[in-house]
């Protein structure tokens, strides 16, 4: 009886030792495998939950460039096209220049002081613009016929031309028209001086 009990007790002790060893082997953790470098950094971040994640760098402040506006400004709507204004007196072609009038006394062949003042103005106008020329339209009421009136008007036109030449106006810039009697209501004995462009 005793001999049979000892082996049984031994077997039970051996079985218990084997079971204890198996349990210890199961409880042991598996050997740690080395992690790649990228995973090691990730693992370290995961193991430190108390640290906040790093913030991205703030963008640099944008400095406005000189002469550059923030953006296109809305432009005002274009006004509706207006019809062209009706032609007025200011836009009409200018008429022929008004003549400067030299008046003679009846049967006279001399220049009065008033006539000389008018001719001095003509001289200043001709000297200011070399493209101008003087047209002398001479009238006369002296004479009993048309031919006599034209001869007298020619003499008065020549008298005015000589005065202009004496003041420095060349004769090639002076024309004379001996017209005889006057067809209008103006003075019957006169010379109209028209300063106009050369034709």
Strands side by side in the biggest sheet: 1-4-2-3
Query: How would you spell out the order of helices and strands?
Result: HHEHEHEE
* Number of helical segments with 4 or more residues: 4
Overall, the morphology is rod-shaped
Number of strands: 4
Mean of pLDDT: 74
Please give the largest β-sheet. Answer: 4 strands, mixed
In helices, the fraction of residues equals 25-40%
Could you tell me how far the N terminus lies from the C terminus, measured between alpha carbons in angstroms? 167 Å
Beta-strand portion reads 5-15%
- Low confidence ranges: none
Alpha carbon gyration radius: 63 Å
Structure description:
It is a single chain. By secondary structure, the chain is α+β, with helices and mostly antiparallel strands. It has a four-stranded mixed β-sheet, covered by helices on one side. Strand 2, helix 4 and strand 3 form a beta-alpha-beta unit. The protein is rod-shaped, with a radius of gyration of 63 Å.
């Amino acid at each position: 009886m005793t001999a049979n009990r000892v082996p049984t007790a031994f077997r039970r002790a051996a079985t218990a030792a084997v079971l204890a060893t198996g349990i210890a082997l199961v409880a042991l953790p598996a050997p740690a495998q080395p992690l790649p470098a990228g995973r090691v950094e990730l693992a370290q971040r995961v193991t430190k939950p108390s640290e906040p994640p790093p913030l991205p760098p703030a963008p640099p402040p944008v400095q406005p460039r000189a002469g550059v506006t923030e953006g296109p400004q809305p432009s005002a709507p274009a006004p509706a096209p207006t019809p062209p204004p009706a032609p007025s007196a200011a836009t009409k072609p200018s008429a022929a220049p008004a003549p400067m009038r030299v008046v003679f006394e009846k049967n006279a062949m001399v220049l009065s002081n008033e006539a000389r003042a008018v001719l001095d103005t003509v001289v200043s106008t001709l000297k200011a613009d070399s493209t101008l020329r003087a047209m002398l339209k001479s009238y006369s009421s002296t004479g009993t016929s048309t031919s006599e009136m034209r001869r007298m008007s020619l003499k008065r036109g020549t008298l005015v031309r000589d005065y202009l030449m004496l003041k420095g106006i060349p004769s090639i810039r002076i024309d004379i028209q001996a017209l005889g009697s006057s067809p209008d209501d103006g003075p019957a004995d006169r010379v109209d001086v028209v300063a106009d462009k050369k034709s």
